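fyi for ur records
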Amino acid sequence: MNFSSRLKELRKEKKLSQYGLAKATGISQSAIARWELNKNEPTSSDLIKLSKFFNVNIEYLLGLSDY
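which gave:
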């Protein structure tokens, strides 16, 4: 699983829209949309925000780990 599909899966588990995730994390909705479409990659600071929000490690977010 890659970052874009992992992000979408985590977002849907929390029943959040892209807009809802954007508001909760301070990341723009357009950035989240581009990541989910695999058109861009997040910065390291965005990865940290997402990992803290979803309470997962960065390796899991990137699809490098299943834990």
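Residues 3-13 form the longest helix (11 residues). thats all i got for now
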